[in-house]
Write a structure and sequence with these properties.
The complex is a heterodimer of chains A (292) and B (469). Chain A has 292 residues and is of the alpha/beta class. Chain A contains nine helices and 16 strands. Helix content of chain A is 29%, strand content 30%. A five-stranded parallel β-sheet of chain B has the order 3-2-1-4-16. Chain B has a five-stranded parallel β-sheet with strand order 6-14-7-8-9. In chain B, strands 10, 11, 12 and 13 form a four-stranded antiparallel β-sheet that branches. In chain B, helix 9 links the parallel strand 1 and strand 2. The termini of chain B are far apart. Classes of the chains: A alpha/beta (292), B alpha/beta (469).
């Protein structure tokens, strides 16, 4: 057990436009990480603390895998870190481990970069002997990530894209709705993705009587229960996603409140990202768009 | 010889200026002011002031040395029992402790002990940045057993320093990326500059203490790991940082913070320097802070410095019952904070987009004393009214941090989650495990936590000596 190791990036893969996979040195995290747990990273000394779900861990080599989509300045700064570069800090594993229900047939529904945190669930269910159906969705074919990895631990994989460039044209909940209408039955569902998607999926599984685990991604600061910024309402009670979750009973979560709270810093984040992009582009401003 | 009945007043930044900056409010004594104030001390034989200090600083001793112009010696004298003098001189509630027992207080104003302690620490730090190290007695390398300290707040820092001075190999494990606990994330720059905290921690590091950031005992490593790594005793100083909420409608609206989140964003993450520092914070124009303690006052004064036009501290009892230090309440009022007393929040009102627009309140009158001995606030029916605000900060207290205790189920806690210890030693029910500070007592003062850290360090020393025989 070594403390204070540098969090070097040993491998970086571009999975899709603005989506990167980092394999990074974090031996203490790798040693204890379980499906559903997350880390908080700081890309540099003045960075925000950003929570990221652990996509994979390799205790023997002391590395973990994280998938990051560039959405604002904080994630853009992470995306700047190259192979051989390092994170200023990584702490974890945080949150409770996901409960892998002992079931015969499970359906996993992942949207966008939600595929990455779904991988540990898929592996765990697959090795438990359950029949695993995985539904993955993205805006378009090029944005689908980690398909090979998902296929290796799923019995059935179904794909949806918003534009129909691959698989079903539509969203993941459309695919699930069709499966359920065709008479498919599942003992359990796990759903990870944007809140609006999880809400739609939970509407379907509630109706079908399928217990559903969701993994929530509210705003956090410390990740240890000290700020309460990640509070969510579950079954009418306030829970802190960082210490009580991030996995919860999807049928009890107040998704509307979660979506509202995720917009807390919309304005600040936009300003911050705009100034970041302006500084990246330097002083050159293209005048092409001024042509009427 | 007559003794001046009035103490020397410490200069402060002008309220009209300081309300908009994060620089320290109190400016400290000059050398001349300090020697003048020191000359007021009667040097009582029975030292009543010392009995009011949780770490038993030899107060008349260090003040006498200031009088003689031996400021460095005064510093060494304080350091004999207090590893964090520049911090205690700033944030201790001296008015309830040493200064409350000063004989001069019976007929006039007590000696400004806190201000003198601060002067000594600042004078020596400014005069010679390495003096702190020279002032330490050489460490006896006779007790090289390994001791782990969990949490780097005032309790952990004190236990670590005392154990290092006793010759132990000490490692401090901190869950955040910077050290100091509540001194780092809770107390704002304008009351405790972070450079001073860094200096005090550097001193403890100079004693040979190792500091490990981003290490959560209970998550990153376990107590079994500590044993396997050869740690023979553990001090738990994980604090009380789990924020309480009111349980009223509207608490999850956009614009509602726990004071912990608000202060952590501003202090630890330096959100007041956004966007250079990348963590955002709401710069509310009309801000309500709910609560009457130091955390509430710190939040209110932070809101002003972030540009608020109006800041209201909403407290359910009267001013006399406010737990915050009187001096800080006065500072806040001078800066323009409005106290809304005998008032309780009943609902936070939001608009269609989920943003806070108002705080619905009800007025109280004081009834019979409650269990705490303070008169109970009783709502006056029909007195509801609303304050228009865009930000609400809930500062009504904190509970115990759960991660260590949850991961160590054999550790005895009370029904609220605080660790149960022997009052004299800090010993828990687990052999070799000691605890102190807010994780035992609930939210209290920096100096009380330091006192607990010191007591536990002594007990750990006794335990390890008897253990090795």
């Amino acid at each position: 057990m070594t403390f204070g190791v540098e969090h070097r990036v040993v491998e970086k893969r571009n999975l899709a436009d603005k989506i990167h996979l980092f394999k990074v040195v974090a031996p203490l995290v790798a040693r204890r990480a379980k499906p559903g747990q997350f880390v908080i990273v700081r890309s540099h000394e003045r960075a925000e603390r950003i929570p990221l779900t652990i996509a994979d861990s390799d205790p023997d080599n002391g590395t973990i895998s994280l998938v990051v989509q560039e959405m604002g300045r904080g994630t853009a700064k992470i995306a700047e870190i190259g192979e051989g570069g390092k994170f200023a800090g990584i702490v974890g594993p945080l949150g409770r481990a996901g409960n892998i229900a002992s079931v015969n047939k499970v359906v996993l529904i992942a949207g966008g970069v939600g595929v990455a945190p779904m991988l540990p669930y898929a592996r765990a269910y697959h090795s438990s002997g359950a029949h695993v159906t995985t539904i993955v969705g993205a805006k378009t074919r090029d944005m689908l990530i980690l398909l090979d990895e998902i296929e290796s631990v799923s019995d059935v994989v179904m794909v949806s894209t918003d534009d129909g460039s691959l698989g079903v044209k539509g969203v993941v909940s459309d695919v699930l709705a069709r499966l359920l209408a065709d008479g498919e039955r599942f003992d359990h569902a796990v759903c990870i993705g944007p809140a609006v998607m999880m809400k739609a999926v939970c509407g379907l599984t509630r109706e079908a009587g399928i217990p559903t685990t969701v993994s929530l991604n509210p705003i956090m600061v410390d990740g240890t229960g000290m700020c309460g910024g990640c509070r969510v309402t579950v079954g009418g009670e306030i829970k802190f996603a960082c210490v009580d979750g991030p996995g919860f009973d999807g049928h009890a979560v107040d998704f509307d409140e979660l979506m509202s709270r995720q917009r807390f810093y919309e304005r600040e984040e936009r300003l911050s990202y705009d100034s970041y992009r302006t500084s990246k582009e330097g002083s050159h401003r293209c005048r092409l768009d001024q042509i009427g | 010889m007559s003794v001046r009945s009035n103490r020397v007043t410490m200069p402060k930044q002008d309220p009209a200026v300081r309300r908009r900056n994060f620089d320290e409010v109190a400016l400290g004594f000059t050398y001349k002011q300090a020697t003048a104030e020191a000359s007021r001390c009667l040097n009582c034989r029975n030292k009543p002031c010392v009995s009011g200090c949780p770490v038993s600083v030899d107060i008349p001793g260090f003040i006498a040395l200031i009088k003689e112009g031996k400021v460095e010696d005064a510093f060494a004298k304080i350091r004999e029992t207090n590893s964090l003098p520049a911090i205690c001189g700033r944030v201790c509630p001296q008015e309830n402790q040493c200064e409350a027992r000063c004989v001069l207080g019976k007929s006039g104003q007590p000696v400004a002990i806190g201000a003198l302690e601060r002067f000594v620490a600042d004078y020596c730090r400014e005069k010679d940045g390495t003096f702190a190290r020279k002032a330490v007695k050489p460490i006896a390398l006779t007790n090289r057993a390994k001791v782990a300290v969990v949490g780097s707040g005032p309790a952990g820092l004190t236990a670590a320093a005392d154990l290092a001075l006793l010759g132990y190999e000490v490692t401090v494990f901190e869950s955040l990326h910077e050290f100091g606990g509540v001194l780092r994330y809770g107390i704002p720059e304008f009351r405790l500059p972070k450079a001073i905290l860094d200096y005090e921690i550097d001193y403890i590091r100079s004693l040979g203490v190792r500091f490990v950031p981003d290490a959560i005992v209970g998550k990153t490593i376990t107590t079994d790991d500590l044993t396997a790594l050869g740690y023979r005793a553990v001090f738990i100083g994980t604090g009380a940082g789990l924020p309480y909420f009111l349980g009223i409608p509207g608490e999850n609206l956009i614009g509602v913070y726990s004071a912990n989140e608000y202060l952590t964003r501003s202090n630890l993450m330096k959100a007041y320097l956004f966007p250079e520092h990348e963590t955002p914070i709401r710069r509310g124009k009309r801000v309500a802070v709910i609560g009457g303690g130091n955390v509430a006052i710190d939040s209110a004064r932070t809101a002003l410095r972030l540009g608020a036009d109006e800041v209201f501290v909403v407290y359910r009892r009267s001013r006399a019952e406010m737990p915050a230090r009187a001096e800080e309440i006065i500072n806040a009022e001078e800066e323009g904070v409005t106290l809304v007393l005998l008032t309780s929040p009943v609902e936070i009102v939001g608009d269609d987009s989920g943003q806070v627009v108002a705080l619905e309140c009800i007025r109280n009158q004081l009834g019979e004393p409650d269990a705490s001995g303070r008169r109970r606030p009783v709502p006056i029916e029909g007195s509801e009214y609303a304050i228009d605000v865009d930000t609400v900060i809930v500062a009504i207290g904190q509970g115990p941090n759960p991660l260590f205790t949850e991961a160590t189920p054999s550790l005895l806690t009370d029904e609220r989650g605080y660790i149960v210890v022997d009052a004299d030693t800090g010993a828990t029910n687990l052999n070799g495990f000691y605890a102190g500070g807010d994780i035992v007592t609930g939210a209290a003062t920096v100096i009380a936590a330091m006192g607990a850290g010191r007591k536990a360090a002594k007990a750990i020393h006794r335990y390890l000596r008897s253990d090795s025989q």
